[in-house]
């Protein structure tokens, strides 16, 4: 028993599960429209076919459907989602931080849709690494209220808070980052962005280890915004002088 999809022959669901997330354009339509594929799933494993039918009827978006099916068919594979594949959770955290200040919607999906939590449950993190399991569980809950904050907290908690790459520059730690962006004028034009994406706040939380740093963060952002207002006044003043 086998099936050919996108010029590749699949002999079992275990093999099929490996490719579901890595080829979203191929499988997102096939799972709904390919009757031969449906029969292949049913003939391969009747119980997993019933799980497939349940997921289809939940009206999940296609990426989430592919993710959940992939780990029903093959629960032993690395973390994969929408063409991304990670050899470790550290690699996931590293990519989140490298993309900053931009937020990758697919990486954020892993947190906001509970997919990362689902993955670590399958891999028994609650037993093998309970502290990391609790951290990701807490961040999944936080993401329901503060998506961006939870997203960057996840990045720092998985990758770490030293030697952070931000827009091509490596910063030794949080203090190094704050000191340099204050002195190099970056804050004059980007304070609003830093406040909105919560990168700086997440960096601070994961450096000092708790959410009680919020007041310090607010004070810092007020200082940044004050610098930005002074800069704008200075620019306006200089423009008027030139007239």
Structural features:
two-stranded antiparallel ribbon, 243 residues, 7% strand, 15 helices, single chain, elongated, 6 strands
Short summary:
This protein is mostly helical.
Pattern of helices and strands: EEHHHHHEEHHHHHHEEHHHH
pLDDT averaged residue by residue: 88
Strand order of the largest sheet: 1-2
The helix count comes to 15
Number of β-strand runs: 6
What is the molecular shape?
elongated
What is the terminal-to-terminal distance? Answer: 81 Å
User: Fraction of residues in helices?
Assistant: 55-70%
Q: Class by helix and strand content?
A: mainly alpha
Portion of residues in beta strands equals 5-15%
How is the main sheet built? Answer: 2 strands, antiparallel
Task: Detail the poorly predicted runs.
Answer: none
C-alpha Rg (nearest Å):
23 Å
Detailed description of the structure:
The chain has 243 residues and is mainly alpha-helical. It has 15 helices and six strands. The protein has helices spanning 13-20, 24-33, 35-44, 46-56, 62-73, 89-99, 105-112, 115-122, 125-128, 130-142, 147-159, 174-183, 186-197, 199-208, 214-242, and strands at residues 3-5, 8-10, 79-81, 84-86, 164-166, 169-171. Helix 3 (35-44) packs across helix 4. The termini are far apart. The model has no long low-confidence stretch (mean pLDDT 88).
Helix-strand layout with pairing:
Layout: E1 3-5, E2 8-10, H1 13-20, H2 24-33, H3 35-44, H4 46-56, H5 62-73, E3 79-81, E4 84-86, H6 89-99, H7 105-112, H8 115-122, H9 125-128, H10 130-142, H11 147-159, E5 164-166, E6 169-171, H12 174-183, H13 186-197, H14 199-208, H15 214-242
Antiparallel strand pairs: 1-2, 3-4, 5-6
Helix pairs in contact: 1-5, 3-4, 4-5, 6-11, 7-11, 8-10, 10-11, 11-14, 13-15
């Amino acid at each position: 028993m086998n099936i050919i999809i996108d010029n590749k022959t699949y002999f079992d669901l275990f093999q099929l599960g490996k490719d579901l997330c890595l080829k979203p354009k191929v499988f997102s339509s096939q799972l709904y429209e390919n009757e031969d594929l449906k029969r292949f799933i049913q003939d391969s494993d009747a119980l997993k076919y019933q799980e497939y039918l349940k997921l289809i009827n939940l009206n999940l978006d296609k990426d989430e459907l592919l993710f959940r099916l992939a780990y029903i068919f093959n629960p032993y594979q690395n973390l994969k989602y929408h063409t991304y594949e990670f050899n470790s959770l550290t690699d996931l955290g590293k990519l989140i931080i490298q993309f900053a200040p931009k937020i990758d919607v697919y990486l954020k999906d892993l947190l906001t849709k509970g997919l990362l939590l689902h993955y670590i449950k399958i891999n028994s993190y609650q037993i093998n690494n309970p502290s990391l399991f609790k951290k990701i569980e807490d961040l999944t809950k936080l993401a329901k209220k503060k998506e961006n904050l939870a997203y960057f907290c996840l990045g720092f908690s998985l990758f770490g808070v030293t030697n952070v790459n931000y827009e091509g520059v490596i910063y030794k730690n949080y203090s190094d980052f704050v000191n340099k962006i204050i002195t190099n004028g970056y804050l004059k034009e980007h304070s609003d962005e830093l406040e909105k994406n919560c990168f700086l706040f997440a960096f601070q939380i994961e450096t000092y280890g708790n959410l009680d740093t919020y007041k310090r963060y607010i004070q810092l952002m007020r200082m940044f915004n004050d610098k930005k207002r002074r800069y704008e006044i200075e620019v306006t003043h200089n423009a008027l002088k030139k007239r």
